[in-house]
């Protein structure tokens, strides 16, 4: 430490004849700040990032687990580079998906930037207006901002935006993995192209990401034109010790509302889970991820009532998007302060990296469906050196009766939990999934550019937005159709002047003037299930649905009769089939092929993981016995009453397309995590159809005709339906090809 102190107080040059360390290459004031923090050493990812930023002019991707020091890895060399800049305009644009994360990073960087006399300003809806006004007058240093605030800046103050953002040296994108999927990522990528257009020299991009499955995808997002030039800095640091337990509980076979409020007359699995959580989580800070908002509230209520019955202070509080900002922040502040033991019971809202202090353990209700989410959640625990990460997974299975479906005998919840843990150990993470929001983002950005520029020619709009980068899947013909739809009398979003300039129409002006316009994402919408005029309830829809598809809800099967995209209403009739396997085919988060394949490997295995409790071990054994008895070690079709289960052991995308291929042959089906259930159909008939699919692969255009919920993104209702269908088809052509190969392999296993 004496050596470091001397270096910090004297010079940033190494001794003659030696190569400089990363630390020695930093600005003297930064070195002094590091010494004052009493750091013993730079972390490996920080040391390597210094070299990547200072030695090259390339874009840089920094990938490391939560709490690995990614923020410092970026800012120590970036601030070293810009510390002496005197010219007007921001030098660093830091982009975050969350306002709360911006506030955290602002506090985190405060002392460091003050030392360097670098101005720093937060720029989002809740940030102080006075600081923003000063920054407009004299923009310098670092601005911390959300994508939505960038959008607002470009539309409302295009002249200021040119001055403020036209000479950036760096753009730092935090939580990059959160932008690799979905409309918000497309939106930000489009905004970055527009920022580049404000300057003759595009700013260098620094991406900060949790560990992801395909770093090449992230590099391509960061620099679509030259992804091979991106310098990748991946942490080699060991993950903290993992302490893990998977616990299993059972629900009565006939229970309809396993996530309802606690009833006095009968216990369900959630009651027993709450008992265990109450006994092991009290007295420390923890996070519990419970899935749906309903389940969060049901579990938090159970834990609160147990506190009241025990006459102890309540430590358990819900956290989800429907709660007020004040209630959410109260919980976040309580976790961060750490002076009172607190457990947050959340949906996905506490996954991303806002600072909530030291977390002792993470619990998850339900077997993981996403390794990316599981890894992100686990990263909340074990953040201090030498402190283990603690994970508890609570799995609910159904008690079996005489008429139970064969799928339930496989105990797929326990199997998926074991498979997920195995993949976690292997460091597998899903690559980014298919994006379905291209049209909505193109429409939104078209309106935004027109509002920013006061008008633009169609060719110029296409060049700016679609010629390369995130929206390049749109052809010129696609974009022309989009513009025609926007100009239609129904929407009146744009209109064309005699000279060809496209300007905002009546509705376009109204839309772009709304504060709601800046955000491209919408909260997860609940769809209403209606039968004979009676509302059965509401569900989120995560997977494609179509007329004739059968879904599970409230313990029954329902056949979809109509789908109202705009109204978010699905009309259903009760299906004649009786008992159903335990799956929610359209409501759950999609499952990746790799996880489904690992589930089959778990069923084929004989080893029993030590992290299972006794009940879970029993269920795993039951599942393996059923797997062999059903002939799934060599076959793929299982008769279940009048139905036939087709086990593909692939993920949601494959099974959805296969389901629609069966539907196109006149069959009714429901999609599982690991296959498709064909209803009221004998295995011989199913096999015959599969042979047809193997001989003539499913035509994705025909399959697409069955998909009804195409309007999945915020502005899709203003996009021509045939364009949405064409883009859906184009993005899933490779899935159709895979389905053909998978079915060919399954058919080949049957005797001719």
Report on this model:
This protein has 752 residues and is an alpha/beta fold. It is built from 27 helices and 24 strands. Helix 23 packs across helix 27 (733-748). It starts with a helix and ends with a helix.
Topology record:
Layout: H1 2-10, H2 28-36, H3 44-55, E1 60-63, H4 70-82, E2 92-95, H5 99-116, E3 120-123, H6 129-137, E4 142-145, H7 147-156, H8 158-165, E5 170-173, H9 182-197, E6 204-209, H10 215-222, E7 231-234, E8 242-251, H11 269-281, E9 286-289, H12 293-309, E10 316-319, H13 325-337, E11 343-346, E12 361-365, H14 371-378, E13 389-398, H15 406-409, H16 412-425, H17 438-453, H18 458-466, H19 476-487, E14 494-496, E15 502-504, H20 506-512, E16 526-531, E17 534-540, E18 550-553, E19 556-564, E20 569-574, H21 593-604, H22 614-629, E21 637-640, E22 643-647, H23 652-664, E23 669-671, E24 675-678, H24 683-695, H25 700-704, H26 721-731, H27 733-748
Parallel strand pairs: 1-6, 1-7, 2-4, 2-5, 3-4, 5-6, 8-13, 9-11, 9-12, 10-11, 12-13, 16-20
Antiparallel strand pairs: 14-15, 16-17, 18-19, 19-20, 21-22, 22-24, 23-24
Structural class: alpha/beta
Principal-axes geometry comes out as globular
Order of strands across the biggest sheet? 3-4-2-5-6-1-7
Can you tell me the number of structural domains? Answer: 4
Question: Total number of β-strand segments?
Answer: 24
Helix content: 40-55%
**Oligomer kind:** single chain
Largest beta sheet, briefly? 7 strands, parallel
State the end-to-end CA separation: 75 Å
> Helix segment count?
27
How much β-strand is present in the residues? 15-25%
Low-confidence runs of at least 5 consecutive residues:
1-17
Q: How many whole angstroms does the radius of gyration measure?
A: 27 Å
Mean pLDDT: 87
